[in-house]
Amino acid sequence: MENYQLLWNNALEVLRTTTSSIAYTTYILKITPVDLEGRKLVLNVPSELFAKEISTRLLDKILQALKTAETGVTSVKITVGNSTVDYLHKDDENEPLLESSMEINPKYTFDSFVVGSSNKFLYSAAKAVAEDPGNNYNPLFIYGGTGLGKTHIMHAIANHVKSINKTANVLYATCEKFTNDLITIIRQGKGSASGTQEFRNRYRNVDVLIIDDVQFLANKEATQEEFFHTFNELYGQDKQIILSADCHPREIATLSERLKTRFEGGLMAQVVSPDIETKIAIVQRKAEERKYIISTEVATYLAENGSNDIRSLEGLLNKVIFASLLHEAPITIGLAMEAIKQSVSNENKEVMTTTNIINTVCSFYNVSKNDLLGKKKNKELVEPRQICTYLITELMSIPLVTIGQAMGGRDHTTVIHARNKITELIKTNPRIATEVNDLKNLILKK
Q: What is the DSSP letter of 30?
């Protein structure tokens, strides 16, 4: 089947629901796709009267259906019978191929960023970049676990740059957005000059490019290739590049060596879990943003009972605020304790942790936790240890460095080795594959 027929079939599925049954049977089903010219679909109809009816009543719906079905077609040409003369040519060529850029959150500023010992270096580096983009620390590579403020500080840089230079072109996007835009161009424009140019105009004609979650470049060769050239183009023009990931560039699987080198060529800033004082300050700041004032006692209780990431702290605070509204009572330590006691209990049962995985593996292989995390090299311990490491990398989205710490203080290269070895053994060793699968089921059921 020709490609244009496949595209039309996809559009028909949409038209079946967007047009009346009479219009669909009488007109739509009698249209025949005959060619595809770039992104223009050529449709043939039986007569000029038929073509007139299509053009006046159904053409906009046809174009919309082609768009909704994500065919990549942006225009149609109608021919009549055996004639090669265009009866009608209508397109949306002036419409951009790519969806609008992602918004920069105005609430994420340097003023609203709580600075503590865990992120003081990051804050100082980000402020320096924002004050003089392109000249201080290029690129700035921010890495660390989720929920620790990476996205906040990146938006803060963008907002600060815009505040001191209203005409600055600052683009923030996730790695997923960058990838999807590239896929859109490949699918719709098939690498056409106009499509490629639109993509490059968006990502290369900027003063500051901010890309979040670049770990998702892993295993995407075409995206890495395009990102490499985008990086070089901007760097060569002294345009500021800011990147974030959940791990060090060296820990991003299958990332090309040339990208790793470029990412490490500027300033590496790691963000780590906040200490208790910073967590207390974060809770109080978040409460103030919600127009609530909470005591240090309450803030300390939430900080001590929450996880180490900022999002979980905010989640606990929301529960307490909700309880205050529900009971129409002030936020006291008693109300806070009652509000989160049940939720913390439930979350502890439901949230997956490295401890849960380690304990499950120990029980499964009948080995002690000290032996599993220890230094002994005998096979009956090495294999469970490597499987445990593999399971944590598979089931939890945390940095490799953190996994190494959980597995007895091992470095990230040991984690990578264990992960890769078990990945290969699963393909070749049925016993290992079965045991890993059984362990996954046990862990997920918990």
A: G
Residue numbers in the chain where pLDDT is lower than 50 = 92-95, 190-191, 345-350
Distance CA 146, CA 280 (A): 19
DSSP state of 208: E
Question: DSSP label at 103?
Answer: P
Q: How far apart are CA 27 and CA 34, in angstroms?
A: 16
CATH number for the domain formed by residue range(s) 354-445: 1.10.1750.10
Residues 6+ positions from 199 with CB-CB distance below 8 Å: 97, 98, 181, 182, 185, 226
- Give the distance, in angstroms, between the CA of residue 274 and the centroid of all CA atoms in the same chain: 23
The torsion region of residue 298 among left (phi > 0), alpha (psi -120 to 50) and beta comes to alpha
**Rounded to 5 degrees, what are φ and ψ at 356?**
-60, -45
Edge-to-edge order in the sheet of strand 208-212: 170-174, 208-212, 240-245, 140-143, 267-270
- For the chain, the straight-line distance linking the first and the last C-alpha, in angstroms and rounded, comes to 49
Q: Does domain 120-270 have CATH number 3.40.50.300?
A: yes
What class, spelled out in words, does domain 3-91 have in CATH? Answer: alpha beta
Beta strand ranges found along 219-315 (DSSP E)? 240-245, 267-270
The string of pLDDT tens digits covering residues 293-335 is: 889 999 998 888 777 778 778 888 888 888 888 778 888 898 8
pLDDT in tens, 201-241: 889 889 999 999 898 888 888 889 999 999 999 999 999 99
CA torsion 389→394→397→398, rounded to 10°? 10
Question: How is domain 276-350 classified at the CATH fold level?
Answer: Helicase, Ruva Protein; domain 3 (1.10.8)
Is residue 300 within 8 Å of residue 282, measured between CB atoms?
A: no
Give 38: exposed, middle or buried? Use CB within 10 Å, 0-12, 13-18, 19+: middle
| Pairwise CA distance, residues 117 & 278, whole Å | 8
Q: What's the DSSP call for residue 42?
A: E
